Amino acid sequence: VSTMNAKTSCAGEEEASGMSNETLGESGCLGEAKRRQVIRVAYVIAALDLTFVFMQMGVMPYLAKSLGLDSVGFGYLQTIFGVLQLTGGYIFGRFADQFGARAALILSCASGSIFFLLMSLSTNIPLLFLSRLPGVFMHGIPGAQKVITDMTTPSQRAGALGKLGFCFGVGIISGSVVGGVLSTKFGVYVPTYVGLVGSLINTLIAMVWIPSRTKPKSDHHVTEHSTSQSGSLFSIREILRLMKFPGVMEVFIVKVFAGLPIGLFMIMFSIISMDFFGLEAVESGYLMSYFGVLQMVVQGLVVGKLTSHCSEMTLLRLSVFVFAGVGLGMALMRTVWHYCIIAVPMVFAFNMLATITDSMLTKAVPSSNTGAMLGICASVQPLTRTVGPTIGGVLYKQFGVSSFGYLQLMVNLGLFVYLLKSKIPLEEVKS
Fold first, then answer.
1. Residue 395 near residue 407, CB atoms below 8 Å
2. Contact criterion met (CB below 8 Å) for 217 and 366
3. The CATH number of 235-430 is which of 1.20.1250.20, 3.30.43.10, 1.10.238.10, 3.10.180.10?
4. Under 8 Å between Cβ of 371 and 101
């Protein structure tokens, strides 16, 4: 009788909140307070994960230099890491769909532990390159996104996903500062020890606080192309199947191309900050902290409120339009102070675009495929990091810093006109 009562109350709660078991997995029976607690834990895991990532990013150039790796070799090291992240993003998403968000987060955190362990043992260049291999499954943000997607209704999703940008700001600031202090005072390997211990703690947090989730049931009312056709973790056919859902390809193209010029600029930023702005290393660190603060303010005070008052298509058009204005500003900027002003709308547009497109794309596919969709979205940044150094280097060398701005302006003006004229046939798929 108590079991029947529990099931009845669970069903009543789902009906009242407009959520189904399929939308929320096991979270449908967790209760609102428990769901909020799990989402907060996902934010904590994401913030810690990003902190450790930015710690190693700050230390890596010095560690590579101390082992005798030149700038060309360091470029190869970064490219390998980008390719691994690019390849692993979709595989990680499919893993999350098949085994649940909890298993995916544990895999990501455990891979981070192996990553930092190998880094701490890297006393020569081959070991340093070997330490990049676990990066194929290091996807803390997509893992947290999967948890949040399972724990929220479609109407809550954009705001909840947007708060992950706040975690990103925390990671930039704390990771850069802590990594710099530890490496300066105690040695270049100390941040890797901290990352190792922290990743192990993150793994335990995921194991204890993130509930297990059964695999989503199959859709019974959707069309043939809505049903997964492959049980393997990597399938080109599966990617193409997801892209055939109404509006998915259009939104994904906007997601890739709207932020591509800015992505190329940020990849070249370390060189631009030295050559064009004339900044010292410590000043570049202050600038990165400024970005982190902007990220936190935008995500904490702006994005969430806008998502509750405006439609997602309106916000998508707004982010693309602001990106076009940012491009014009970048084409005209001459000093680092100009860039600090431009950074405000740039951070806004970047975060809004990422949040809205992730929300729209996960709503447009069945709940059993949200992990794969998030994995595909997560592959955009590694793709930029992979091809960016070559394209960005050519643009900077041949045409100067202003070329990034003009490219940003032209691409986003074209996308804005496209979004105004076309009616993207997005429809929410419910399982």
1. yes
2. no
3. 1.20.1250.20
4. yes
Backbone φ, ψ for residue 220 (5° rounding): -105, -15
The amino acid present at 91, given as its one-letter code, is I
Output the pLDDT for position 153.
Answer: 85
Domains 32-214 and 235-430 share a fold: yes
Place of tokens 């982190």: 292
Cβ atoms < 10 Å from Cβ of 117: 18
pLDDT tier, 33 (very low <50, low <70, confident <90, very high otherwise): confident
Average pLDDT value for the chain: 83
Cα dist. 3→8, 10, 19, 31 in Å?
9, 10, 20, 16
AA letter at 170 = V
> Which tokens in the block code for residue 117?
């362990």
Buried b / exposed e along 325-349 (16+ C-beta atoms within 10 A): bbbbbbbebeeeeebeebbebbbbb
Cα of 218 vs its chain's centroid, Å: 28
Q: Judge residue 185's burial from the number of C-beta atoms within 10 Å of its C-beta, 0-12 exposed, 13-18 middle, 19 or more buried.
A: exposed
- pLDDT at position 232: 65
What lies within 8 Å, CB to CB, of 236 at 6+ separation is none
Structural domain boundaries of the chain? 32-214, 235-430
Q: What span, in angstroms and rounded, lies between the C-alpha atoms of 365 and 246?
A: 9
Which residue matches tokens 């209760």?
31
Q: Mark out the alpha helices in 152-247 (DSSP H runs).
A: 154-162, 164-186, 190-209, 236-243
Residues 373, 343 contacting (CB under 8 angstroms)? no
| Residues 347 and 207: beta-carbon distance below 8 Å | no
Class of domain 32-214: mainly alpha
Most distant pair of Cα atoms in the chain: their distance: 76
Q: pTM here? A: 0.76
Q: Distance between terminal CA atoms of the chain?
A: 29
C-alpha distances in Å from residue 131, one per residue of 126, 162, 167, 248, 407? 9, 31, 25, 35, 36
Say whether pLDDT at 14 is over 60. Answer: no
